[in-house]
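Design request, tokens follow.
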């Protein structure tokens, strides 16, 4: 009799955990709804993402909760120059949790070497729960001018549409984003991609 109750409690606990995980994924996906801007697409490339679409372990977080620990190196990323752009912004967001891992603004170059912008970066460390694989979007925005204000909380949940709307506003005017593009790399607790 005690064994049956214990098994039922364990089953109920597993169901509750799954429901909570699903709820948080749902909340994260609402914060990741894309904003359609009707601008040209930038081709974004990264040698830090394998042919199979996996982010290298060296780009993973070096936090103790990440196993194996990465080197917390910001990914290599490059893109084509956009005519009329005064600057570029690079954002890395966990599409499954709307969690910002990287934000670099006021760029005038079109390539960032791996590990070059670590101060503004916290590598992926998705939860070990059920071996969930998360997708990390590295997005580049070409801007006409520096935006008025952009509110970004690094290594925290953010509203991605709000970040895009902030980037799209300069001197009180909309349509500041000239072009945008992204590449996606996946990462999972336990990945050892070299």
């Amino acid at each position: 009799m005690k064994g049956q109750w214990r098994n039922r409690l364990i089953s109920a606990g597993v169901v509750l955990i799954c429901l909570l995980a699903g709820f948080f994924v749902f909340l994260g996906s609402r914060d990741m709804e894309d904003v359609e801007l009707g601008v040209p697409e930038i081709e974004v490339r990264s040698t830090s993402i394998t042919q199979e679409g996996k982010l290298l372990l060296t780009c993973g977080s070096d936090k103790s909760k990440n196993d194996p620990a990465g080197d917390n190196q910001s990914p290599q990323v490059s893109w084509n120059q956009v005519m009329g752009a005064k600057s570029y912004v690079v954002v890395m967001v966990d599409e499954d949790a709307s969690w910002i891992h990287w934000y670099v603004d006021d760029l005038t170059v079109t390539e960032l070497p791996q590990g070059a912008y670590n101060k503004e970066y916290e590598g992926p460390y998705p939860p070990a729960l059920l071996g969930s694989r998360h997708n990390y979007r590295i997005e580049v925005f070409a801007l006409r001018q520096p935006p008025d204000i952009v509110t970004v909380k690094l290594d925290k949940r953010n509203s991605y549409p709000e970040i895009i709307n902030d980037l799209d506003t300069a001197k009180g005017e909309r349509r500041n984003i000239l072009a945008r593009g992204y590449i996606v790399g996946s990462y999972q607790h336990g990945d050892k991609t070299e």
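Comment from the thread starter after seeing the answer: thanks! The beta strands are 44-45, 77-79, 87-94, 99-107, 111-112, 133-143, 156-157, 177-188.
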